[in-house]
Design goal:
This protein is mostly beta strands. The protein has one domain. 10% of the residues lie in helices and 38% in strands. It contains one helix and 15 strands. The strands form three sheets. Strands 4, 6, 7, 8, 11, 12, 13 and 15 form an eight-stranded antiparallel sheet that branches. The protein has a five-stranded antiparallel sheet with strand order 1-2-3-10-9, with no helix packed on it. A two-stranded parallel ribbon has the order 5-14. It is elongated, with a radius of gyration of 21 Å. The relative contact order is 0.20. Bound molecules: calcium ion (3 copies). The site of one calcium ion has 7 residues, from loops. This is Carbohydrate family 9 binding domain-like. It comes from Fervidobacterium changbaicum. Keywords: Signal.
Length: 228
């Protein structure tokens, strides 16, 4: 009888461990194809207001998304932009230690998260990009893969893949990402203001000509996997 009980107990332990494993199912999200079409993003691509830019229809974020699989971080965007304005994404990766803010950005952008650090920043103007991994000491260029197209109404559409191992991610199974998307401009001549035309998600402080005291503190982000 004692033996039966022991076997029963052993089976119970195994069952318990297995169910724990199930509860910790890897948060690997989705693999997308880099073809400049966001149709494969499903619910992972979000729509931003079509008329909520401080700078009008030519500097507008329409869609944005971020997700990952076992090997890549993926970024999606649909936007319009003028001049040197860019579609920018600022990313905080769980388990990676980055920078307090974007001070080390080679083009001098001034943003920070209210909560979290900056691990990766990408800016794109459609058919080209700049991308950097941020640490407390420096921002180093990262090579990514980019596909871009243009819609019939002149929106630029981008799909980007960044190898997770270039971002310091060691275990994608435990990864969560947090991000904000900005239609960014530069700094005012005296460096006191950072210009930003549109945000996704909306921050709530959007106002006036889109010039904000530096650094711009990002309060609202999107997370994947979604926070429960
Ligand atoms: Ca695609
Ligand atoms: Ca918008
Ligand atoms: Ca917006």
């Amino acid at each position: 009888m004692k033996k039966v009980l022991q076997v029963f107990a052993a089976v119970l332990v195994v069952l318990l461990l297995t169910s724990c494993e199930l509860f910790q199912a890897p948060p690997l999200l989705k693999t997308v194809t880099l073809d400049g079409s966001l149709s494969d993003w499903g619910n992972y691509v979000y729509t931003d207001g079509a008329t909520d830019s401080r700078w009008g229809a030519n500097n507008e974020i329409h869609k944005a998304g971020i997700l990952f699989d076992a090997t890549n971080l993926y970024i999606a965007g649909e936007f319009t932009k003028e001049g040197y304005n860019n579609f920018m994404v600022i990313v905080d990766l769980s388990g990676v230690t980055g920078a307090q803010d974007t001070t080390k950005h080679p083009w001098g952008r001034k943003y920070k998260f209210e909560k979290g650090d900056v691990d990766f920043v990408l800016e794109t103007w459609g058919d080209g990009y700049g991308a950097w991994r941020f640490t407390s000491a420096e921002a180093t260029s990262v090579q990514v893969t980019l596909a871009s197209t243009e819609t019939s109404d002149g929106h630029k559409v981008v799909e980007i893949a960044v190898p997770l191992n270039k971002l310091g991610v060691t275990d994608p199974n435990k990864l969560s990402v947090k991000a904000v998307f900005v239609l960014t401009g530069g700094l005012s001549d005296d460096g006191s203001k950072q210009y930003a035309g549109d945000f996704y998600p909306n921050q709530g402080f959007e106002a006036g000509d889109g010039g904000y005291n530096v650094p711009v503190v990002i309060a609202k982000t999107i997370s994947n996997p979604l926070k429960k």
